[in-house]
């Protein structure tokens, strides 16, 4: 059963063509307010506060990565943006409309983790069916080529690999020619080459002025592709800005080198080093700031002239992610470690 968005309710369950209703062709004023506005958005599941009064404004044309550990509130926030879940308090405005009206106007394309393509249709038939319910769809062949689904367009949806199914989900989201694309883990089940191809496609789509919000496990994707990262933890926004700004908030520096036969306990005594790790022949020295790394580098070379393949860099997004989303006492017993709906979970989900 494939889940998508339709005219009378935020979610339609499509078993076949006969129950597929057309999206209403809503007349939209050219001077409608732009972008996405979340105001005091709040949602709880029993005693678990999944989203805690967040405020967020996303301008038209921005590409925003929504990141956070499991239980941060990402999926719940996405569901409220799409109108699949109603907030307990606060509001969502999409291009000056409610989510329901924006969906009716064909302005929103959603690519979710859940749902499977409608059975007994070919990929082309599915995309054609979805195009038929929107007021101003893209050309089906254009979408098939753009999303890399053309080569298996005649294949039944029941005969697709995991990566191919993800591409079909993307094609379904894109065929409406929406102003906003919301992508929840879009490259899950896609191999490395497929992930690269997907983001090349997304760059072409974004260049047309689309607003894109995506959640991903792959921090390097957010670092490379997003104009802006919104980092959530414990239902709140803990950081918001360009990837460079997010990384700069942590402020550390890392020295990497190839160095044989030196224990990490010795490396930890170098002035300016806060932590030393070894992986095979490579060592990594963490420093608090650029001054510390400069001192540490000079001492490292003075002590161990055989050190080679030296690299000094600022902290990566992963280090910033871990530090900015670290547990704290204030929230230690408040739903931490649970997924957005209150079930136990771990990791970056």
Describe this structure in words.
The protein contains eleven helices and 15 strands. The strands form four sheets. It has a six-stranded mixed sheet with strand order 7-8-9-5-10-11, with helices on both faces. The chain has a four-stranded antiparallel sheet with strand order 13-14-12-15. The longest helix is centred in the middle third of the chain and has 15 residues, at 192-206. A hairpin with a 2-residue loop joins β10 (228-233) and β11 (236-241). Residues 1-21, 24-32, 329-339 and 341-349 have low confidence and may be disordered. The protein has two domains: 2-246, Rossmann fold (3-Layer(aba) Sandwich); 252-314, Alpha-Beta Plaits. Helices cover 29% and strands 26% of the residues. It is α/β, with parallel strands linked by helices and 349 residues long.
Give a topology summary.
Layout: E1 2-4, E2 12-14, E3 36-45, E4 48-58, E5 63-67, H1 74-82, E6 89-94, H2 99-104, E7 108-111, H3 123-132, H4 140-146, H5 162-174, E8 180-184, H6 192-206, E9 211-215, H7 219-225, E10 228-233, E11 236-241, H8 243-250, E12 253-258, H9 264-267, E13 273-279, E14 282-287, H10 290-303, E15 308-314, H11 317-324
Parallel strand pairs: 5-9, 5-10, 7-8, 8-9
Antiparallel strand pairs: 1-2, 3-4, 3-6, 10-11, 12-14, 12-15, 13-14
């Amino acid at each position: 059963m494939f889940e998508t968005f339709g005219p009378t309710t935020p979610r339609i369950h499509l078993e076949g063509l006969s129950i597929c209703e057309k999206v209403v062709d809503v007349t939209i004023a050219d001077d409608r307010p732009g972008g996405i506005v979340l105001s005091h958005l709040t949602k709880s599941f029993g005693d678990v506060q999944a989203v805690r009064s967040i405020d967020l404004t996303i301008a038209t044309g921005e590409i925003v990565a929504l990141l956070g550990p499991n239980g941060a509130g990402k999926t719940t926030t996405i569901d409220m943006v799409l109108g699949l879940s109603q907030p307990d308090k606060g509001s969502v405005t999409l291009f000056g409309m409610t989510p329901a009206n924006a969906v009716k106007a064909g302005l929103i394309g959603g690519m979710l983790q859940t749902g499977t393509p409608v059975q007994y249709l070919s990929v082309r038939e599915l995309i054609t069916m979805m195009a038929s319910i929107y007021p101003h769809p893209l050309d089906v062949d254009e979408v098939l080529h753009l999303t890399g689904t053309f080569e298996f367009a005649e294949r039944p949806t029941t005969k697709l690999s995991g990566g191919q199914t993800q591409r079909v989900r993307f094609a379904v989201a894109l065929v409406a020619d929406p102003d906003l694309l919301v992508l929840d883990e879009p490259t899950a089940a896609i191999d490395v080459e497929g992930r690269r191809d997907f983001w090349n496609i997304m760059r072409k789509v974004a260049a047309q002025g689309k607003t894109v919000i995506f959640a991903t496990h792959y921090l390097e994707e957010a670092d490379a592709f997003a104009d802006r990262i919104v980092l959530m933890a414990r239902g709140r926004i803990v950081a918001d800005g360009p990837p460079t700004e997010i990384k700069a908030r942590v402020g550390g520096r890392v020295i990497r080198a190839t160095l044989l036969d030196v224990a990490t306990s010795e490396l930890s005594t170098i002035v300016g080093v806060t932590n030393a790790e070894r992986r095979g022949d490579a060592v990594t020295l963490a420093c608090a700031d650029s001054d510390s790394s400069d001192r540490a580098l000079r001492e490292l070379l003075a002590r161990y002239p055989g050190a080679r393949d030296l690299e000094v860099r600022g902290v990566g997004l992963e280090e910033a992610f871990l530090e900015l989303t670290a547990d704290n006492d204030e929230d230690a017993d408040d739903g931490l470690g649970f997924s957005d709906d209150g079930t136990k979970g771990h990791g970056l989900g």
